[in-house]
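Hi C.,

You asked whether I'd gotten around to modeling the 217-residue construct. I have! Everything is below, sequence then structure, no commentary in between.
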Amino acid sequence: MTTGIRNASIQVVLATLALFGAGLANAASVTYFMNQSNTEGSWPDGIDYLSVTIFDSISNPGDIEFLVTPLAPLTISAGPNFGIQAFGFNSTQVLTAANIVDPVGWSTGSGNLDGFGSYQISEDGTGDNRQNPLSFRITGILGDVLTDYAVLGAGGAQGTYAFAAHVAGMTDVNGFTSAYFGGDNSGGGPLVPVPAAVWLLGSAFGLLGAIRRKTTA
């Protein structure tokens, strides 16, 4: 490796380290759990059935991303077409469909998710494009923070919760193959760094080490 190329490569890696160091300081995530069901005979309340992680986007700086993941107490009953078919949340921000980057075939609206009440934003798919996990992104909102998207709703027969989801495609559990699940924001902890930023930072350090080893070889 020539001196010019080596120095340029090191400068690129150092710039990457600085970039991800800044991202690590600012990127954050918070996770909540959905532990309420509208079919308690099949999926009893008090068990974490899905997690909702809200985090600063690394690939799209300034945006905020959602990752809604079915957990083991739910996936143990998964059939061949299992997944999330709808998800609702509320926000202190004014959102329109233009602010939501949906999965392919999904749409953004507002509406009622069974006994968990009405939600400002309802992400809706169909039986042909259920998601496991569900990932979407909020864009074009200046100055928003993660907790802007963990807000209690108006409530319904099941209670008042920040999130609700319709999950379908389960094997028959006491006569049910789908259910609605809800969760509030009491499980959210302090903001923590996004793990992906840590992995990328480690990769940059590894690349820098490889360049230095080639230099001394």
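If it helps when you're writing up: The CA atoms of residues 86 and 124 lie 4 Å apart.

Thanks,
B.
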